[in-house]
Amino acid sequence: MKDIKAIFMGTPEFAVPILEELIKKLNVIMVVTQPDKEVGRDHKIKYSPIKEVALKHHIPVYQPTKIRKEYDEVINKNADIIITCAYGQIIPEEILNNPRLGCINVHASLLPRLRGGAPLHHAIIDGETKTGITIMYMDKNMDTGDIISTREYLIKEKDNVGILHDNLSIMGRDLLIETLPSIIDGTNNRIKQDDSKATYAYNITREDEHLDFNKPSREIYNKIRGLYPFPTAYMKIDGKEIKVLESHIGTKEVNLSPGTIAELSKEGIGIATQDKIIYITKLKPFGKKEMDAISYINGINKEKVLDSIVE
């Protein structure tokens, strides 16, 4: 397949194993990724993980601010195929209609479920029992193109978004490589998506990160692991923000107002929810390092915190 000229479009770490394997299999002539970012107080320039891979392999990198208007450089490459994974911008029809083998996307869900930019997070937050990878032809709408192949992943009780990220990244790489020959020789079966079964995984906002203890304990537990290790859920105790990293659901049913700190013990910070107590077992106070709940409890005024309401 080394005679196939390919352009890869992607940005985050999730897409790195996919690009690295494609470089071995195809002639990757260009990588398209998001513009560099300035980070920190000194405004140091940070490359995307995909740009780092491209530079390591001496592949030309293109970083348009708005691909919808700046697509000529992509089209002029006359690639046979364009493969995308978590690129981060809507790709215009001018590009979609250009390569002879089409534009292929590696999406981290079992489409049509969880269309959108945060399928890994929402798979856990929304209480899905399974998710997976879909290889699909792209069209002008968000994640609505014909399905080529899928692979299922069963979500485990202790999975968080970091574990899901790592497992599905490798699964996406492997499924794409297995599927590519049928795309190239035209023998794959295109399956239209059933839009009536679609669900959506919109990007996580700051508001989404806040924990609402008026919800059932299971929903809170799922949100905590669905946001860890990135971007992480948070709550406020005594007006101070605390990142919540890990938890477990207790067996006790409660009659306390949701959000009440009911217990400070070896089991963790026990907070009343709509139905049961949920125990925060790992956290990160603002400006401090990650710690277990016991370390946090030992450093606070317990009498002041116990029976207070979490914001």
The general outline is elongated
Main pleated sheet: 7 strands, mixed
Main sheet: which strands, in order across? 5-2-1-6-7-8-9
Radius of gyration: 22 Å
In N-to-C order, the SSE pattern is: EHEEEHEHEHEHEEHHHEEEEEEHH
Give the helix level as a range of percent: 25-40%
Total count of helical runs of at least 4 residues: 10
Could you give me the name of the CATH homologous superfamily of the largest domain?
Formyl transferase, N-terminal domain
CATH topology of the largest domain: Rossmann fold
Mean of residue pLDDT? 96
* Gap between N and C termini: 56 Å
Domain module tally:
2
* SS-based class: alpha/beta
Tell me the number of strands: 15
Instruction: Give the strand content.
Output: 25-35%
CATH architecture of the largest domain: 3-Layer(aba) Sandwich
Q: Regions with pLDDT < 50 over 5+ consecutive residues? A: none
CATH class of the largest domain: Alpha Beta
